[in-house]
Write a structure and sequence with these properties.
Layout (H helix, E strand, L loop, with lengths): L1 H28 L3 H4 L13 H9 L2 H32 L5 H12 L7 H11 L5 H5 L6 H11 L4 H9 L4 H12 L1 H17 L2 H6 L8 H12 L4 H31 L6
Helix pairs in contact: 1-14, 3-14, 4-8, 4-11, 5-8, 8-11, 9-10, 11-14, 13-14
Length: 270
């Protein structure tokens, strides 16, 4: 009993560390200005929706939301399709230098993303894609991490099923669509959620490749909101932050039961 009590205390402490800042963000978004700077701190706000109205009107958040939605949906779709096709090739096709190419993919996972910012920007500028959806989406459609996850999962699937599909005359695309992907639903959902969160929260690349408010995304819009409202309007800033977090948080809550199984599936098989 004593050991279990210690475990509960540790778990509660860890939960408080992670959930405390999230609760403070949530409560501050609903607080009146006088409560935000109150000492001792007011943990229970007098609910007000004014901060959300101010945040939405302080910057063109409707346009930011549209841009983020377009980039997330299209970017996620292209990245996941690319990862699935590449992973299938690594798992099932006989290709020259396949192991070397796969090690190159693993090497790409170890390269910081900021290393590619300058060459990507020069390429986008040369193609005339500054302030365009193509410039925001195309440079990021390759994902070494998603490819690695899907390939490792495909290797755990029973080969008898794919062999039977080949005997029945199914080609690679039909085998992928009718056989492999239905058995890979948890991993596929996991990759989609991880990729969507990455696309939605991307800050540095949209900040670099756009210079007009009409093409900004929500994370960049928060920076504009802070600049316009100043450090004093924390209620407005937290309300804007909550508007950015809410869609991905809802997606995570809906898909969370698939994520643990998807992340661990095939993790030990090479």
């Amino acid at each position: 009993m004593k050991t279990r009590a210690i475990q509960y205390v540790v778990l509660i402490g860890v939960a408080a560390v992670f959930l405390g800042p999230l609760y403070w963000l949530l409560s501050t978004a609903f607080k009146q200005p006088t409560q935000i700077y109150q000492w001792p701190p007011a943990w229970w706000p007098h609910l007000t929706w004014e901060n959300f109205s101010l945040a939405w009107k302080a910057a063109p958040f409707d346009r930011f939301f549209l841009n983020s939605t377009i980039i997330t949906v299209i970017g996620t779709a292209l990245k996941v399709v690319n990862a699935v096709l590449t992973a299938y090739a690594f798992a099932y096709l006989r290709l020259p230098f396949k192991k070397i190419l796969f090690f190159a993919v693993l090497g790409a996972m170890m390269v910081p993303g900021h290393v590619t910012l300058l060459p990507n920007y020069l390429t986008v500028a040369t193609l005339g894609w500054i302030n365009s959806y193509a410039g925001l989406i195309i440079p990021g459609i390759g994902s070494a991490f998603a490819t690695f996850l899907m390939r490792q999962h495909f290797l755990t699937l029973p080969t008898e099923v794919t062999d039977a599909a080949a005997v029945d005359g199914a080609g690679h695309l039909r085998t992928l669509w009718r056989v492999v992907l239905p058995m890979s639903r948890p991993m596929l959902i996991t990759v989609v959620v991880i990729t969507a969160v990455e696309e939605w929260n991307n800050f540095v690349w949209p900040l670099i490749v756009t210079n007009t408010a009409s093409m900004r995304t929500l994370p960049v819009g928060l920076l504009i909101l802070k600049d316009e409202e100043g450090l004093a309007a924390w209620g407005t800033i937290m309300a804007g932050t909550l508007l950015v977090l809410a869609p991905m948080l809802l997606i995570f809550l809906v898909a969370q039961r698939y994520i643990v199984g998807g992340i661990t599936a095939g993790a030990l098989k090479g």
